[in-house]
Amino acid sequence: MSRHDLPKPTTAQYRWQDMEMGMFCHFGMNTFCDQEWGDGSDSPEKFNPSSLDAGQWVRLAKEGGFKYFILTAKHHDGFCLWPTKTTDYSVASSPWKDGKGDVVLECAEACRREGIGFGVYLSPWDRHEPCYPDKEAYDNFYTEQLTELLTNYGPLVEVWFDGAGSEGREYDWARIIGLVRKYQPDAMIFNQGAPTIRWVGNEDGVAPYPCWNTAKEARVSMFTNDMLTWLPDTPDWVPAECDVPIRKNKWFWHPDDEGSLLSLEDLKDIYYRSVGHGANLLLNVAPDDRGLIPDADAARVREFAKWIRDTFSNPLYETSGSGNELEISFRSREYIDHIVLMEEIAEGERVREYILEAMENNQWTEIVRGSAIGHKKIDRFEPVLCSKVRLRISKAVAPPVIRKFSVFASI
Ligand code: FUL
Q1: Domains in the chain: boundaries
Q2: Ligand 1, residues 162, 169, 285: which to mutate, most atoms within 8 A of Cβ?
């Protein structure tokens, strides 16, 4: 393959990959019913957060280093968090703000204020809507809902199409994707129709290694092992996103459930295996029935953010450049324990094999051997005392272009 034929990200994909971390926000009827999957029969009367503050959610995302925020505008139960014209099963029929509230708008505005990206999740599977069994009628209904979201809330960075519950069901993807392209051409399309980003295939927040940016297929849902084969107009470049809830296996808030909060160690492991494998991390942090993110979850997010900052914001040394070998000489011997590599993916993903070596006692010693670098590869290892490090690329499909080669000591 010549360098000209290599798949490359679009500008919007490149920007999305640079964001690296998004906060997912599952909130809705389930929050008030201690359940994960409502069947669509819960009364709108139940939706009544006493002190909903989308500003608190989004400020936490910002503080936590998340660059985008995705809200479940409608989950499988069909209850809409915005006053849609398509159904009365929405906030407009709830006691919250006397039916005059709009959670989607509050989130969109908070994201704009905080300067982070906003995205929406709109479940194709709808357990409330009576026309759901009628394919054509539902396609009309769904595209109308989507149009409202695409046109009334400013720029979106991502539209999340969940495959759950839709196994085997065909929607009018050509029309759905056409709307996204028409109204939000820069928004990423998650995993359905003609995706521009793909699901990593699990809900643990971890990517395999290597996790190449190119793919021809991805898993559709947790509930089938079927693979989605890309439609012809999906680009070969389809980076992965890793979604995971901060409370083990719980996307929505549940009472008396702090015990399922992931530990800081769990989150570190997730970070190394998502962002550290070149994928984006989408961490779900769910507001409670007051409409606020509980203190314990917020504190964990802050701890996680502090760890990322402490570990990765001050490289001891950093370089960049083209070619098969890059070397960094230290001013004196140093203990190091992390190396972060980034390819200039605007030129495509070129590296296939690399070796990191450290100079100890005048001898090069191998510390890590890897394959993919892509957007980012984080290598951590037992502290090594050395005076130089070098990156040797032993296999590449075109001349490598390294955007960053950074060395850290977290000890
Ligand atoms: C799954 C859904 O069934 C869960 O409820 C959650 O929304 C998760 C992100 O996707 O497929």
Answers
A1: 3-312, 317-408
A2: 162
